[in-house]
Structures are given as structure tokens and as C-alpha cells.
Amino acid sequence: MTQVKLEHITKSFGSVHVIKDVSIGIADGEFVALVGPSGSGKSTILRMIAGLEDPTGGIIRIGERVVNDLMPKDRDIAMVFQSYALYPHMSVRENMSFSLELAGRPKAERDAAVAEAAEILGLTDLLDRKPKALSGGQRQRVAMGRAIVRKPEVFLFDEPLSNLDAKLRTAMRKEVKLLHQRLASTSIYVTHDQTEAMTMADKIVVLNDGMVEQIGSPTELYTAPENLFVAGFIGTPQMNFIEGMVSADGTVRPDGNAHLPSLRVDPGLPLAAGDAVVVGIRPERIRFVPDGAYPANVELVEPMGSEALVTCNFGPYELRVQDRSMETVAQGADVRFDYDPVLALVFVRDSGKRVVKAG
């Protein structure tokens, strides 16, 4: 069983603390994505697992071994980088087998491992080409093949698709996910793209400023974010946020405009009159209806084919709406909208924590 455990990991560069008491458990065969904005510490964590950086404090376990003091070559991991890092003078075959050659593996074993990886990745017909004769996607597959031939306990991916164009990234996401399912390997995948994380990972770790904000499945993070940061980071377009005060009847009066109607929220939430809160509504939860409870003015309409992304002004607040009605909403028009109050999330304004029902 190849589990990976980070126990109270910290990392400092001089007086700068970049990783702050991070603990993560990754099960055998699990595909886990580390996501967060630039500077959140996700690549630093990956490099510490790989042995390319030493933690300032805490313990890293791979399987049953504590690997803090082990060299990268002794950790039985393989890493795929953002840069393909292929040897330009070597063929695909030679690039993929080079690490095995350095390890002194017999030629027959090297050839068999390369042939197996090439078949998995669709590279069999390209084995004699040099990297300059390959497309970006093919080069990335060679980089993955170079990792596969080693049959490591853990695969580490550091933003491997960020150099590809949008269409190729979508295709490669599928390939990486199918590869993981076929190999049933423990995989840790770093990305700043939450769409990659949502579509590929079994579990997502959301990082911010060197700390873990939330760990959960893609569905859990989307439907039940624990705080405002996760709610705003996960989901495209971003969740709409409206600040307000809880009224005596349990609704939320928006700040900034006394003439705006109060927002309805789940009456089962433990809210008290006077609480300062933030109401979060996903763009796809809002619908335009003639008799809607809330007035808005359309600022911008962005047709997306099967839907339109509509930006509206609701008093001082800007709302994004995913409109799938296929009816034309004109820029500058006055509209009315509504939403299901049970699907609106409420957060404590000071702490950012989501308000949840008791029990």
C-alpha cells in the first residue's frame, strides 16, 4: 500500500514562512490535486515530497517510510514537470529508457518497459523520432512515459499541461485521467487551474497562503465550501457574493442600498438578527423571470452557444448569471431574477466561515 502522508509540514525561507502546518493524507491509488493561487505553496509541497526541498518541520511518509532524509532517487517517485525536459539529441525511445539505463537495468528489460509505456500512451509509432519532430502533446506524453517506465510508487505532476493550448489541455486531461485509472497509481497533481482539478481528481486540497483551506471531493468543494475563499476559488464563473445584515424575519438586508429587497436564505440556518453575513449564489442558480423578486440591470451579455453569461447590476453589486433559457436578454435592459433560497450559501462576514445547520 503506497500512502503519502504529510504531518504538520512547515517550510521557511529565512524569515518568510511559505508552508504553515500542513497535514494531508493521500490514500493508496488516489488521485489528489493541489490547487490554489500563485504563491499558495502547492509546488513547494510537491517539491518537498519529491525531495527537491527539505521541510523546515514535520514528517513526510511514503508508504511506511519516513522519507525526510532520503535522496530523491531513493524515494521511489517519478515527477512530470511543466517543462518537458527531454534530451533533444535522443529519440523518444532513448528519452524514455534513459533512467533505466542509468540504473543499470538490462537492455531487454528496458525495451520491454518502453514498449509497454509507449502502447499505453500511443507513442509506439513515434519511438524513433527526436523531440523536435513532436507536437506539444506528444512531448508531454513522452515525459509521462519516462516516468511510467520506472514503475514508481508515486507519480508527481507539477502543472504538466500549462504549456499547452486550451484544446490540447482538454484532450490531455482525459489522457492523464485514463492513465491514472489504468495504472491505479498514487498520483499528486499540482495545478492553478481549478477546472483541471475538478475534472481529474478524486480529492482536492485547496491551498492559500501556505495553509490548507479545505480538503474534499470536487462535489463537496463545489456544493459545500467551508469558507469564502474556497467558495470564490472553486467554480467558473465565480460565485456571486452579496454582503448584508440578518433581519428579524431571518432574511438578509443587502448593504449599500436601502431600497434593495431582502435576500431569502434557508430558514433552517442558525442566524440571529444583526449578524453580518455574506450571501453566496452560484451563477447557474439564478434565473430571469418576469415576476422575479429582485430587480437588476443588464450590463453585459456574453453568448456562449448553449448559454449566455450575463453580468447584471443589483444595486452596488455585480452579479454573474448563467442563462440557459436561450431567450435574448438585451444589454441595458431592466430585468428581474429569482433563485432557490435553500441553494444560497451564507458565510459569517468576519471569519469567512460558512453557516451550517446544526447536526
UniProtKB/TrEMBL annotation:
It holds the Pfam family ABC_tran. Belongs to the ABC transporter superfamily. It comes from Aliiruegeria lutimaris. GO terms for molecular function: ABC-type transporter activity; ATP binding; ATP hydrolysis activity. SMART domains: AAA. Residues 4-234 form the ABC transporter domain. This is Carbohydrate ABC transporter ATP-binding protein, CUT1 family. The keyword Glycoprotein does not apply. It comes from the Bacteria. The keyword Nucleotide-binding applies. GO terms for biological process: carbohydrate transport. GO terms for cellular component: ATP-binding cassette (ABC) transporter complex, substrate-binding subunit-containing. The lineage of its organism: Bacteria, Pseudomonadati, Pseudomonadota, Alphaproteobacteria, Rhodobacterales. Keywords: ATP-binding, Nucleotide-binding, Transport.
